[in-house]
Write a structure and sequence with these properties.
This protein has eight helices and four strands, in the order E-H-E-E-H-H-E-H-H-H-H-H. By secondary structure, it is of the alpha+beta class. It has one domain (about 10-80, about 90-210): Transposase IS200-like (Alpha-Beta Plaits). The two termini are about 15 Å apart.
């Protein structure tokens, strides 16, 4: 799928290891990926849910408008950005969302190839992206993402998987995940917990089920 990510649009983004091979080998790999995610994706999209598994990952996002990109830039660079001595205007540069995701995955792959002393593509083609066009899809997508580790047998209970946004959404600790928006969407924390106890409607995710991602 080669369609560029559009601005101010909800997406399900996903990526898989080449031939379903491992892409996260140890705890530090997951942590390193999330540091790269913050670097490349936080400036261009809001994140509502994520789950990183040994051989693939899922993300529920909304790409920013150009105005939102600029607002994020101005908010985060007050002390770190270089300002033009003549115009005193911060040098904001628009970031194309698809390119930012490519930068993310390429930067991570480069590090893993060095770590594992391997060559060749780490991923199975370009990252997948599917617009989330209905409330029902978005609602089920978040549950699907969080329950994915259990679905694939990595844990018996998805709540035991440490590399997803499930606990971050229920916690009061700082997070880049849009916690308030997600809990409002589910009608509060209790409903969020209850709804996650059953499998979501997977029909909107048929594009993934066919490939058993």
């Amino acid at each position: 799928m080669s369609t560029k990510l559009q601005l101010n649009t909800y997406y399900h983004v996903y990526q898989r290891g080449n031939n379903r091979q491992t892409i996260f080998f140890k705890r530090e790999n997951y942590l390193h990926f999330m540091r790269l995610y913050a670097k490349y994706i936080a400036p261009i999209a809001a994140t509502y849910a994520y789950s990183l598994l040994p051989n693939h990952g899922h993300f529920a996002i909304r790409t920013f408008s150009e105005a939102e990109q600029r607002a994020y830039y101005e908010k985060t660079c007050e002390e770190t950005c270089e300002v033009s001595k003549t115009s005193q205007v911060s040098p904001f540069k628009f970031k194309e969302p698809s390119r930012q995701f490519s930068h993310l995955f390429n930067a991570y792959a480069k590090g893993i190839n060095k770590q594992e002393k391997r060559t060749g593509g780490l991923y199975e083609g370009r990252f997948g992206r599917k617009p989330v066009t209905t409330d029902r899809y978005f609602y089920n997508l978040i549950t699907y993402i969080h329950r994915n580790p259990q679905k694939h047998g990595f844990v018996d209970d998805f709540r035991d998987w440490p590399y997803s946004s499930y606990h971050a959404i229920l916690s009061d600790k700082p997070t880049r995940v849009e916690r308030t928006a997600v809990l409002d969407w589910f009608g509060g924390g209790d409903n969020f917990i209850e709804i996650h106890q059953t499998d979501p409607d997977e029909r909107p995710m048929v594009h993934l089920l066919d490939d058993d991602l």
